[in-house]
Specification:
A hairpin with a 2-residue loop joins strand 4 and strand 5. The strands form 2 sheets. This protein has a 6-stranded mixed beta sheet, with helices on both faces. Strands 2-1-4-5 form a 4-stranded antiparallel beta sheet, covered by helices on one side. It has about 625 residues and is an alpha/beta fold. The protein has 18 helices and 10 strands.
Amino acid sequence: MSKSNTQKPKEPDSRLRRPIKNPKASSSKTGQNVNKQNRKIAVSRLLKYYWSQMKGHRLIFLLVSLMIASASALSIYGTTLLGDFIELMTSNQPSKIVTEKAWNVLFILVATIFVVFALWRIAGFITGYFEAKVMKKISKNSYQYLIQHSYDFFTNNFAGSLVKKMGRLFNSYEVIVDLFLFDVIKSTVTLLSVTIVIFYYNIWLGAIVLLMTMASLILHHKIGKYKYVKYDLPFAEMDSKLGASIADAISNVSTIKTFGAEHYEFKKYGKLIEKWRKQAFKTWTFGQILDASLDFVLQSFRVIMLVVSLIMWINGQIEASEFVVIQVFMFQVWDILFFLGRIFRRYYKHTADADEMMEILDSPHQIKDLENATELRIRSGLVEFQNVGFKYGPGQKPVLKNINLRIKSGEKVALVGPSGGGKSTILKVLMRFYDINKGKILIDGQDISNVSQSSLHQSIAMVPQEPILFHRTLLENIRYGRFEASEEEVIAASKMAYCHEFIMSFEKGYQTYVGERGVKLSGGQRQRVAIARAILSNAKILILDEATSSLDSESEKYIQKALENLIRNKTVIVIAHRLSTIMSSDNIIVLKDGEIVEKGAHGDLRNKKGSLYGRLWDTQVGEFITPKIK
């Protein structure tokens, strides 16, 4: 989001995000990640979600439904015309009257065929138009909702798995809508029309067809739901795990190759793909058993109906033309009843595919803006922590305890202390990646919990210890600091960060793509690009997480000069791992076990008897400055 635009993004309708009970619950028997109550509502909630996304296209959808229903009914009418042909051909010798009637029937049949053709083709073109529109909307809305989840959400989910889940929700819409329009409507209208026609010919045959149709539909529905819970959901979850494993390995391929661990990863993936194979085999085998069983039953009834119809013709209860038409319809009915089983199973399968993403859309955002959240207005950059306490979850130990800290405008403050002392957590709660459990965090007197997250994040520039870049051009990566910046401003910031020279050494200069996560650049180059991005943002508050740690000595010397210009008249918070880099800080805050145990200037803390900072300094720096005498 641009620095110049701090408007809070609009969230999807809250009715589509009902909180669910225990979204992380899983079953060791089936491997599914939703409880029984959720399974019951999964199908209906998906349809409601898709229907909500079709707002503005519902009339077109209903029009297409009507066109397909009409085409299906006219197809049945065309089949009944065959009976008229047979009756004319078998009841009379060709004559002028019979011939004229035959040509009339043929004309109506041909007209019906072309009307049906036109309805189907027009419906197909219209469906392609509105499906693409709705799928675009689903993709944008689900992406927006996903990306607004909390920092904690993304640390607990595989990126590859999330991508796969979102893609399934997107693609399942097309499959489910096509199933409804081109299969369910057609099959329903055809079955209804055929049943009415057969009732017209013979009430007993019509009753048999009606009972068989109702029994088949109920059976398909029950079996489809059973397969959805027992097989489809576990298979979808296993498929997500497979995608997540591949993405995890690819994103860490350098580590795999560094340790020569290809064989280990092959073996690990082999075990996972074997689990997938077993689940796939169980799912597909169950489907084949259902198809075989249903096909046998339907074929048996087809033979029975053929025998009964033949007996009725022999007894003069139906005409030969009626016999032929009924048998044509019978073949259609049984084919449809068999095909409906696959329709139900495909529907439930794609519902299961979309269900994991629906769980995410149903899960409320952990960190939310207030309805009347204001925009953060930075005047001087005064930061205050007032009695702040924080822990990562219920039952866990506090990570921050009664933190009281005042960072004046333009002050340079360093956070130091043993690992796990709370340094990084202070920055995370300042950025509001997590909400604190007690106390307040103020910026220029404004409680950060009352301002929009976008305006907060845009008011703070951060240079992390290990910057991650987008697989985009260097120009785009640096301009991320301020999207409306001109190319000249980007170049000026790059020069201040001492990265312009190496950028221009590339054949495409600022249009060079840096690779996924910036892998085409060295660690020092990535760090300098991140610093250029922070320079470009010109934020009043800067966070430096050991920003020069990845640079060689020569580069660090230049970067330190650039940082001196960058931090002038700004509030700067530094996480210091190398204490030698923060000796000139205005104030050094020493943290231990989530509490501030010392604060002051380097000289005062260094010379204070028994100070923790003094011990850290001696351990980290002193031994290198004053070698031990053997």
